[in-house]
Design brief:
This protein is an alpha+beta fold. The chain has a single domain, classed as CNF1/YfiH-like putative cysteine hydrolases. It is 23% helix and 24% strand.
Protein backbone atom coordinates (compact mmCIF):
# COMPACT_ATOMS: atom_id res chain seq x y z
CA UNK A 1 0.00 0.00 0.00
CA UNK A 2 1.22 3.50 -0.82
CA UNK A 3 2.35 5.66 2.09
CA UNK A 4 -0.10 8.40 3.09
CA UNK A 5 1.79 11.51 4.14
CA UNK A 6 0.19 14.67 5.54
CA UNK A 7 1.89 17.98 4.76
CA UNK A 8 1.20 21.57 5.76
CA UNK A 9 1.84 24.84 3.89
CA UNK A 10 3.05 26.44 7.12
CA UNK A 11 6.25 24.40 6.78
CA UNK A 12 7.26 25.73 3.36
CA UNK A 13 11.01 25.72 2.83
CA UNK A 14 11.25 22.17 4.17
CA UNK A 15 10.78 18.60 3.06
CA UNK A 16 8.48 17.22 5.73
CA UNK A 17 5.74 14.76 6.48
CA UNK A 18 3.35 13.68 9.19
CA UNK A 19 3.24 10.01 8.17
CA UNK A 20 0.12 7.97 8.87
CA UNK A 21 0.13 4.21 9.45
CA UNK A 22 -0.84 3.50 5.83
CA UNK A 23 1.79 1.65 3.83
CA UNK A 24 4.70 -0.21 5.35
CA UNK A 25 5.29 -3.86 6.03
CA UNK A 26 4.16 -4.45 9.63
CA UNK A 27 1.29 -6.84 10.32
CA UNK A 28 -1.20 -7.66 13.08
CA UNK A 29 -1.75 -4.90 15.64
CA UNK A 30 1.15 -3.02 14.02
CA UNK A 31 -0.28 -3.26 10.52
CA UNK A 32 1.18 -0.64 8.22
CA UNK A 33 4.02 1.81 8.77
CA UNK A 34 5.10 1.14 12.35
CA UNK A 35 8.34 3.08 12.89
CA UNK A 36 8.69 2.57 16.64
CA UNK A 37 11.68 0.50 17.73
CA UNK A 38 10.25 0.75 21.25
CA UNK A 39 7.37 -1.50 20.20
CA UNK A 40 7.51 -5.31 20.23
CA UNK A 41 7.18 -5.46 16.45
CA UNK A 42 9.91 -7.19 14.39
CA UNK A 43 12.91 -4.83 14.38
CA UNK A 44 13.88 -5.76 10.83
CA UNK A 45 10.41 -4.81 9.60
CA UNK A 46 10.51 -1.52 11.55
CA UNK A 47 13.82 -0.65 9.91
CA UNK A 48 12.36 -1.46 6.49
CA UNK A 49 9.46 0.86 7.31
CA UNK A 50 11.93 3.60 8.24
CA UNK A 51 13.71 3.00 4.95
CA UNK A 52 10.42 3.60 3.13
CA UNK A 53 10.07 6.90 4.99
CA UNK A 54 13.59 7.96 4.02
CA UNK A 55 12.99 7.02 0.39
CA UNK A 56 9.82 9.12 0.33
CA UNK A 57 11.90 12.05 1.68
CA UNK A 58 14.49 11.46 -1.05
CA UNK A 59 17.30 10.66 1.39
CA UNK A 60 19.33 7.79 2.81
CA UNK A 61 17.93 6.27 6.01
CA UNK A 62 21.08 7.29 7.93
CA UNK A 63 19.95 10.92 7.62
CA UNK A 64 16.87 10.30 9.81
CA UNK A 65 17.84 11.47 13.30
CA UNK A 66 15.81 10.48 16.38
CA UNK A 67 15.79 11.06 20.12
CA UNK A 68 15.07 8.44 22.79
CA UNK A 69 11.77 9.99 23.89
CA UNK A 70 11.11 10.20 27.63
CA UNK A 71 8.25 12.78 28.00
CA UNK A 72 10.73 15.45 29.07
CA UNK A 73 11.43 19.09 28.25
CA UNK A 74 14.94 18.28 26.97
CA UNK A 75 15.97 19.47 23.49
CA UNK A 76 19.02 18.27 21.57
CA UNK A 77 20.86 20.49 19.08
CA UNK A 78 21.99 18.21 16.26
CA UNK A 79 25.08 19.25 14.33
CA UNK A 80 25.77 16.04 12.42
CA UNK A 81 24.22 12.68 11.59
CA UNK A 82 24.16 10.16 14.40
CA UNK A 83 22.83 6.63 14.74
CA UNK A 84 22.74 6.76 18.55
CA UNK A 85 19.76 8.73 19.88
CA UNK A 86 20.21 10.47 23.21
CA UNK A 87 17.39 10.95 25.68
CA UNK A 88 15.11 13.91 25.09
CA UNK A 89 11.93 15.00 23.33
CA UNK A 90 13.01 17.79 21.01
CA UNK A 91 15.53 18.25 18.21
CA UNK A 92 16.80 21.34 16.41
CA UNK A 93 19.31 21.82 13.60
CA UNK A 94 20.55 24.12 10.86
CA UNK A 95 22.20 21.21 9.01
CA UNK A 96 20.49 20.64 5.65
CA UNK A 97 21.61 17.00 5.59
CA UNK A 98 19.61 16.03 8.69
CA UNK A 99 15.94 15.00 8.88
CA UNK A 100 14.66 15.50 12.43
CA UNK A 101 12.27 12.67 13.34
CA UNK A 102 9.66 12.23 16.07
CA UNK A 103 7.50 9.19 16.95
CA UNK A 104 3.95 9.48 18.29
CA UNK A 105 0.77 7.52 19.01
CA UNK A 106 -1.64 10.13 20.54
CA UNK A 107 0.97 12.66 21.70
CA UNK A 108 1.59 15.61 19.42
CA UNK A 109 4.24 15.64 16.71
CA UNK A 110 5.21 19.31 16.43
CA UNK A 111 7.36 20.59 13.55
CA UNK A 112 9.00 24.03 13.43
CA UNK A 113 10.79 26.06 10.76
CA UNK A 114 12.43 29.44 10.45
CA UNK A 115 12.65 29.58 6.67
CA UNK A 116 14.53 32.90 6.64
CA UNK A 117 17.34 31.73 8.93
CA UNK A 118 17.35 28.05 7.85
CA UNK A 119 16.62 26.47 11.23
CA UNK A 120 14.20 23.63 11.95
CA UNK A 121 12.89 21.85 15.02
CA UNK A 122 10.78 18.83 15.96
CA UNK A 123 9.16 17.99 19.27
CA UNK A 124 7.28 15.07 20.84
CA UNK A 125 4.72 16.78 23.07
CA UNK A 126 2.44 14.82 25.33
CA UNK A 127 0.81 16.59 28.28
CA UNK A 128 3.88 16.16 30.49
CA UNK A 129 6.30 17.54 27.92
CA UNK A 130 3.97 20.42 27.07
CA UNK A 131 3.49 21.17 30.78
CA UNK A 132 7.22 21.15 31.59
CA UNK A 133 8.25 23.26 28.58
CA UNK A 134 9.27 21.09 25.61
CA UNK A 135 7.65 23.50 23.14
CA UNK A 136 9.17 26.64 24.63
CA UNK A 137 12.56 24.92 24.93
CA UNK A 138 12.48 23.87 21.28
CA UNK A 139 11.91 27.50 20.31
CA UNK A 140 14.72 28.67 22.65
CA UNK A 141 17.08 26.07 21.16
CA UNK A 142 16.19 27.23 17.64
CA UNK A 143 16.89 30.83 18.67
CA UNK A 144 20.28 29.76 20.04
CA UNK A 145 21.37 28.61 16.57
CA UNK A 146 20.10 31.60 14.64
CA UNK A 147 16.30 31.46 14.44
CA UNK A 148 14.09 34.47 15.21
CA UNK A 149 10.70 34.13 16.88
CA UNK A 150 9.01 36.40 14.33
CA UNK A 151 10.06 34.03 11.54
CA UNK A 152 9.25 30.68 13.18
CA UNK A 153 6.25 28.77 11.83
CA UNK A 154 4.82 25.76 13.66
CA UNK A 155 2.51 22.89 12.71
CA UNK A 156 1.02 20.41 15.17
CA UNK A 157 0.27 17.07 13.55
CA UNK A 158 -2.49 14.54 14.23
CA UNK A 159 -2.93 13.77 17.92
CA UNK A 160 -5.63 12.79 20.39
CA UNK A 161 -8.67 15.09 20.48
CA UNK A 162 -10.26 16.53 23.61
CA UNK A 163 -13.35 14.31 23.45
CA UNK A 164 -11.14 11.21 23.64
CA UNK A 165 -8.67 12.49 26.23
CA UNK A 166 -10.31 11.67 29.55
CA UNK A 167 -8.40 12.55 32.72
CA UNK A 168 -8.94 12.55 36.46
CA UNK A 169 -9.27 15.41 38.98
CA UNK A 170 -5.64 15.14 40.09
CA UNK A 171 -4.54 15.89 36.52
CA UNK A 172 -6.80 18.95 36.50
CA UNK A 173 -5.35 20.12 39.81
CA UNK A 174 -1.76 19.73 38.62
CA UNK A 175 -2.29 21.96 35.60
CA UNK A 176 -4.62 24.48 37.20
CA UNK A 177 -2.59 24.94 40.38
CA UNK A 178 0.23 25.97 38.04
CA UNK A 179 -1.93 28.45 36.11
CA UNK A 180 -5.64 29.09 36.70
CA UNK A 181 -6.10 29.94 33.01
CA UNK A 182 -5.49 26.26 32.24
CA UNK A 183 -9.06 25.58 33.39
CA UNK A 184 -10.15 26.74 29.93
CA UNK A 185 -8.59 23.60 28.38
CA UNK A 186 -10.91 21.23 30.26
CA UNK A 187 -14.54 20.28 29.85
CA UNK A 188 -16.75 18.15 32.08
CA UNK A 189 -16.96 14.40 31.54
CA UNK A 190 -18.88 11.70 33.41
CA UNK A 191 -18.74 11.61 37.20
CA UNK A 192 -15.40 13.12 38.30
CA UNK A 193 -13.79 12.72 34.87
CA UNK A 194 -12.78 15.64 32.66
CA UNK A 195 -11.61 15.96 29.05
CA UNK A 196 -8.36 17.76 28.27
CA UNK A 197 -7.68 19.82 25.13
CA UNK A 198 -4.00 19.02 24.60
CA UNK A 199 -3.71 20.78 21.25
CA UNK A 200 -5.10 24.16 22.30
CA UNK A 201 -3.13 23.97 25.54
CA UNK A 202 0.01 23.53 23.40
CA UNK A 203 -0.92 26.34 21.03
CA UNK A 204 -1.29 28.55 24.10
CA UNK A 205 2.20 27.53 25.29
CA UNK A 206 3.73 28.27 21.89
CA UNK A 207 2.06 31.67 21.56
CA UNK A 208 2.99 32.55 25.14
CA UNK A 209 6.61 32.03 24.13
CA UNK A 210 6.28 34.69 21.43
CA UNK A 211 5.68 32.53 18.33
CA UNK A 212 2.25 33.23 16.78
CA UNK A 213 2.32 31.42 13.42
CA UNK A 214 0.83 28.08 14.51
CA UNK A 215 -1.21 25.59 12.47
CA UNK A 216 -2.88 22.32 13.47
CA UNK A 217 -3.71 19.35 11.27
CA UNK A 218 -7.11 18.65 12.79
CA UNK A 219 -7.28 14.87 12.81
CA UNK A 220 -7.72 12.64 15.88
CA UNK A 221 -5.44 9.63 16.30
CA UNK A 222 -7.91 7.84 18.57
CA UNK A 223 -10.89 8.25 16.22
CA UNK A 224 -9.16 7.03 13.06
CA UNK A 225 -7.82 3.48 13.52
CA UNK A 226 -7.29 3.00 9.78
CA UNK A 227 -5.01 6.04 9.64
CA UNK A 228 -3.26 6.20 13.00
CA UNK A 229 -1.83 4.18 15.85
CA UNK A 230 -3.18 5.18 19.26
CA UNK A 231 -1.80 4.28 22.67
CA UNK A 232 -5.08 5.06 24.44
CA UNK A 233 -7.15 3.10 21.93
CA UNK A 234 -4.84 0.10 22.39
CA UNK A 235 -5.44 0.28 26.17
CA UNK A 236 -9.22 0.43 25.72
CA UNK A 237 -9.09 -2.55 23.35
CA UNK A 238 -6.83 -4.48 25.76
CA UNK A 239 -4.19 -4.91 23.06
CA UNK A 240 -0.69 -5.89 24.27
CA UNK A 241 1.13 -3.12 22.39
CA UNK A 242 0.78 -0.41 19.73
CA UNK A 243 2.67 1.02 16.76
CA UNK A 244 4.12 4.51 16.37
CA UNK A 245 3.80 7.01 13.54
CA UNK A 246 6.77 9.05 12.38
CA UNK A 247 6.88 12.77 11.61
CA UNK A 248 10.00 14.22 10.04
CA UNK A 249 11.36 17.51 8.70
CA UNK A 250 14.49 18.67 6.87
CA UNK A 251 15.62 21.89 5.26
CA UNK A 252 15.42 22.14 1.49
CA UNK A 253 18.64 22.77 -0.40
Amino acid sequence: MTLKILKNHNLSGTTHGFFTRLGGESTGIYEGLNCGLGSMDDKKIINRNRMLVAESMGINQSRLVFVHQIHSSDVITVKQQTAFPVKGDGLVTSNKKIALSILTADCQPVLFVDKKNHVIGAAHAGWKGAFTGILQNTIKSMNAIGAEKDHIAVTIGPSISQKNYEVGPEFFETLCNDNKYNETFFCKGSRDRLHFDLVNYSIYQIKKSGVHNVNYIKSCTYDNPNLYFSYRRSIHKAEPDYGRMISTIMLED
